[in-house]
Prior knowledge:
Elements: H1 14-20, H2 23-26, H3 30-46, H4 52-70, H5 82-94, H6 107-144, E1 148-153, E2 156-162, H7 163-188, E3 190-191, H8 207-213, E4 218-219, H9 223-228, H10 231-257, E5 265-266, H11 285-307, H12 322-346, E6 348-349, H13 362-371, H14 376-392, H15 402-408, H16 422-428, H17 437-451
Parallel strand pairs: 3-4
Antiparallel strand pairs: 1-2, 5-6
Helix pairs in contact: 3-4, 3-6, 3-8, 4-5, 6-7, 6-12, 6-17, 7-10, 7-17, 10-11, 10-12, 11-12, 13-14
Amino acid sequence: MALWDGRFDGGPAEEMKIFGSSLDVDLLMWEEDIQGSKAHAQMLFSVGLLNQEELTAILSGLDQVAQELREGWQPSIDDEDIHMAVESRLYQLIGAPAGKLHTARSRNDQVATDLRLWLRTRMFRLGEEIKMLIGTLLNKIESQGKVLVPGYTHLQRGQPIWMGHQLLAHAWSFSRDWERIRDVLRRINRSTLGAAAMAGTPHPIDRFKTAELLGFDGLMENAMDAVSARDHLQESVACCAILASHLSRIAGELILWSSKEFSRVRLSDDWSTGSSIMPQKRNPDAAELVRGKTGRVYGALFSLLTLTKGLPLAYNRDLQEDRQSLFDAVHTSLACVSVMRGTIDSMTILPGPDLKGSALLATEIADYLASKGVPFREAHHISGRIVNHCEKNNKGLHELSLEQYRHFHEVFDVDLSPWLDPEQAAERRNSRGGTAWSEVMRQIAQLRRFLA
């Protein structure tokens, strides 16, 4: 028998029961549902709507329901959702006092509260996971990151950089993900309990009491907004989607770097797999799966945005569809961050390629000329001509004589030699945020302070 059956002469069709049930998803937040019910019961007692005996029976009964759920109890599909399942079982255990628990409460504010409690815990955990991922990156940079490699734009070799400089770029992007999560938690952590269906309640409730008991920072002040708002879910999944894009980018680089063509890193056996037919293969499956799961998170965001488009106030059953997208996006994000942390922690950064005489140093030649007073645009043109000459004659920049350099411009002198050293090229770029190792170490210290 449904808790709302008084209005009806009969029950819903069996197919409607199956179609309308959300129990399979709701069971993921049964702990939050019982937590909210306990707080609500304590508030009802504090304002005189429950007596001590009723409160004791309800709290004890909720503990028993929680134990049964913990041990694997599966509610009936007749219960529709976790809220009705808990209340129905509570009634079976303690009788009449269970019927008072829903005083001044609706499933509308109840599910909104459950979702906020669930999301608060998981988003905080996601933030902590991101901080650990950043810490893992910083440790890897400090221990193995001083390897000279080409830096790329357009996937074409650009300038010599330390590997740690590129890994730091990823660390900084993850730091912004952490900032976004820290910020959205402020909007998640507001209580909806007591909004009831959408118009509030005539009972003398204390919404601040339940907010305090549940650890909320404040209230959703308008009852209609409280039960219909899903922007905090959308914002949270938007944070996950941006995070997924950052994870996908570093995953893509790890996939390239672990190939023989790049040979920048060796991924550990723990985060690699083999081929069923090609014995030599070491496939970067962990990174590929992180990259692939990005689409799931993007899809969840689009689903949530579409769900509320044009939806009239206040609560509509459409909103039952929010949980699958939310839960999948958050669980996927948590898993991807953890897997990426393991992948990076266990990988080995390999020695870099020989960059002596590489065209990567063309910018150094232009900067050398600029330091001698040649306008940079002219210096850029001269350097390009030198690179063109070397390519046509199959020579490295270090193989040209000083006389040959002077053929392109008379200001070239013996002090050109250090400008053609790849390591010195990286170290010269010591402006704030540059690739010089002193800047790499400064940024590591800054990030560690930021995350402390």
